Amino acid sequence: MHRVFCLSLAAVLLLLATGPASAAVTWREVLRQPSEWYGSVEAGAIATSVLQYQTKEGGWPKNHDMTAPPDAEFLAETKYDHRAATIDNDATSTELQFLARVATAQHSAPCREAVIRGIDYLLASQYENGSWPQYFPLIPGYYTHITYNDNAMANVLVILRGAGAGIAPWQFVDADRRTKATDAVRRGIACILRTQVRQHGQLTVWCAQHDEKTFAPAWARNFEPPSLSGDESVGVVRFLMSIEHPSPEVVAAVEGAIGWFQKVGIHGLRIDNSPGADGKKDRHAVPDPTAPVIWARFYELGTDRPIYIGRDRIIRYDFNTIERERRTGYGYLGPWPVRLLAQEYPQWRKINQLP
Question: Which residue of 37, 137, 214, 217 pairs with 207 in a disulfide if CB–CB is 3.0 to 4.6 A?
């Protein structure tokens, strides 16, 4: 595998000599650092590692701690969900944002080149309809669907919007790519508006994934049915609200989604994480009139009823009836839109001077 280094030899030797810092930045924290940190030896060392994970297509795989270089086990693995480039689970978007900051702070040519390849990857992987699949090159199955899950498409649009505008830390993106990125964002927004589900004449929200040909809500894994999402839709709305000078269509999409969130909140139900009778981890939904409002991950199309589904692919209406492994291993209920409704939406209306 071709390896390019961001650090000078002297800096690498200094880092090795001092050993790992006690307060070393983890991969989850690489985008949460003060601006001056991206010019540090530590940031440069992490960038050197990140570069080694970039695929030949220009993206990055998911679910890896990229603060350390790939080991022999990683290099020997060939499974697509281990090595293939994806936008799932914040992959590719995290690496691009991090490397762009390091490239700017350290004037690093290798990091700049990796970012440009990554932007080309995002542009190449966009469907003609404006959306993005979960993996590219395409992998058969639900991976080809329009992917709102885990903010995948919103993350891509935020990067391309910044690259298209040439704002920090994307100033080094050339004019031709800026034009292409801006057009990609325009088409992505059009796809978001097109896939927003309308029920009984009213705009609602989105499914976590939509069919890339019909635009209809689609299945993913057995426990992820076609439905209205009380989780992923929050990220879609946040992206729409981040658009400057929103069009009437964007305003209508936001208002429709907010109205739906306000309507389908679940009151009087609390998540109890007490162990089961056998002492093992468990989770149940219990009545509690004092509990704060929560939302379901999945709402039934047409009825807005919260639905729960385990690995058996059977839709149920009682969270407590799905298997323990899924009750404790997946987020079916949560407070996802709370801040959106209480703070972000009112502020958005004020900024845009909406009546």
Answer: 217
Q: Residue 318 is which amino acid?
A: D
The one catalytic residue among 89, 129, 320, 352: 89
* Token digits of residue 37: 């940190």
pTM over 0.85: yes
DSSP code at position 306:
B
Between the alpha carbon of residue 254 and those of residues 131, 209, 345, the distances in Å are: 19, 19, 9
Tokens, residue 174: 């050339």
- The whole-angstrom distance between residue 52's C-alpha and the CA centroid of its chain comes to 22
Question: What are 203's strand-pairing partners?
Answer: 198
Q: Give the separation between CA 216 and CA 198, rounded to whole angstroms.
A: 11
Find where tokens 């998911």 sit. 62
Of 28, 186, 194, 221, the catalytic one is 221
90, 95, 297 from 31: Cα distances, Å: 12, 9, 27
Residue 89 appears among annotated catalytic residues: yes
Beta-carbon count within 10 A of 217 CB: 21
Q: Which of 202, 199, 208, 241 is nearest to 339 (CA)?
A: 241
Between CA 272 and CA 262 the distance in angstroms is 24
Q: Could you list the pLDDT tens digit for every one of the 355 residues in the chain? A: 333 445 544 444 344 433 443 359 999 999 999 999 999 999 999 999 999 999 999 999 999 999 999 988 888 877 766 789 999 999 999 999 999 999 999 999 999 999 999 999 999 999 999 999 999 999 999 999 999 999 999 999 999 999 999 999 999 999 999 999 999 999 999 999 999 999 999 999 999 999 999 999 999 999 999 999 999 999 999 999 999 999 999 999 999 999 999 999 999 999 999 999 999 999 999 999 999 999 999 999 999 999 999 999 999 999 999 999 999 999 999 999 999 999 999 999 999 999 9
